Structures are given as C-alpha cells and as structure tokens.
Amino acid sequence: MKYLTAGELIDLNKLTVKRHGGNFVPPNNLLHGEALEYLVETVQAEMFGEPLYPTISDKAGLYLFNIISNHIFQDGNKRTGLTGALAFLLRNRYWLKQELVRVEFEGRMLPDEQGGHDEILYQFTLEVASGTVPLPACQQWFAQNIISQS
C-alpha cells in the first residue's frame, strides 16, 4: 500500500488553498503539526503484526476524518481532508464510484440529504466537519462508495 507523506499533505493543502481561496500561513500552514505526524504514523500502524486500519476504506476514512476533525491546517482542512483521502485512493488504484450512495450508520443516513455525486460528497464532507460523523462512519462510507481500478 502506498501512503501519503506529511510533505505531500502539506503540498495538497497549499494547492487547495491557492486554487479555491483562503489563507496559507507560511511556511506550511500548520495549526497542529503533531496531529499531522500522528496521522502519517497511525495510517500505517500495526499492533501485534496486524494493521490497525486494515482496509483501504479504513485508511481513506482516517485521512479524511483526522485532517478535518483535528484542524491540522490553519485553513483548508475540509478540502485537504477530502483531497488527501482521494489522492490516497488514487495512488492505490481505487476511486469513488460514479454513483455515490448515502450510508446508514447507527440508524442515521449519511449524508443527511440526498443528491447527485458532487452533492453527496460535499454534504458528507460538511457533516464530518460538523463533528456529527465519527471515524467508523467515515470508514463505512468509503467502504460503500469506492471501487478498485485494477
């Protein structure tokens, strides 16, 4: 499996802020650098020789959730969290399905509202940022909405 480095995530943040607007505070726009290092280590972590996050969807969900929820950057966390998760998937020959689905988690549909591909992706990301979507729900959402390119 191919992972993203801290430097690559910083570069993704810089690109998203430049492209979509916002403030990039030099040199790397970090608000919580320790959270970035934690993410880079945790996504690859093992316990007793077994991956802590064994599936591609577990790892994609971890990138999205941790970047957004831990406010790793000064600005652009939602965009960077989503871009980071998608870049990780693409690097490992996975992508989002053409038709995204809402996912039921603990009796709640995620995202709350229906819509097309982009609307579901946008609403899901906003709901993660609102703090109402736990990590396991993010991982389940990716499990049901990605497909292998191989």
Structural class: mainly alpha
Question: Would you identify the regions where 5 or more consecutive residues have pLDDT less than 50?
Answer: none
Order of helices and strands: HHEEHHEEEHHE
CATH topology: Four Helix Bundle (Hemerythrin (Met), subunit A)
Shape: globular
Mean pLDDT figure: 97
Counted up, domains total: 1
Determine the number of helices (DSSP H or I, runs of at least 4 residues).
6
What is the CATH superfamily? Fic/DOC protein, Fido domain
Q: Which CATH C-level class is it?
A: Mainly Alpha
Fraction in beta strands: 5-15%
Report Rg. Answer: 15 Å
Largest sheet: 2 strands, antiparallel
Helix content percent band: 40-55%
CATH-derived architecture:
Up-down Bundle
Question: Gap between N and C termini, in Å?
Answer: 14 Å
Strand order of the largest sheet: 1-2
Strand segment tally:
6
Written account of the structure:
This protein has 150 residues and is mainly alpha-helical. The chain has a single domain (6-148), classed as Fic/DOC protein, Fido domain (Four Helix Bundle (Hemerythrin (Met), subunit A), Up-down Bundle). It has 6 helices and 6 strands, in the order ααββααβββααβ. The chain has a two-stranded antiparallel ribbon. β1 and β2 (50-51) form a beta hairpin. α3 (56-69) crosses α6 (135-145). The relative contact order is 0.17.
